[in-house]
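_Backbone structure tokens_
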Amino acid sequence: MNAEIESLEAKIEQVIALVHQLRAENEVLRNQMVAAEAERLHLRQTMTAARERLEGLMDKIPEDA
């Protein structure tokens, strides 16, 4: 009986350790996702600015050129 309880305690400790590990990993992944979203937004803004600049330059090119 005592051995069964000790075995169960060991398994519970393993589960708790795994939960802590997964929570830490989840936090890292959330931070990476936030950083990736910020980078995506920055790139989208950069692309929009570049497109607007190109459109402005194209408007300056004479039609018969």
In short: The mean pLDDT is 95. The CA atoms of residues 12 and 18 lie 10 Å apart.
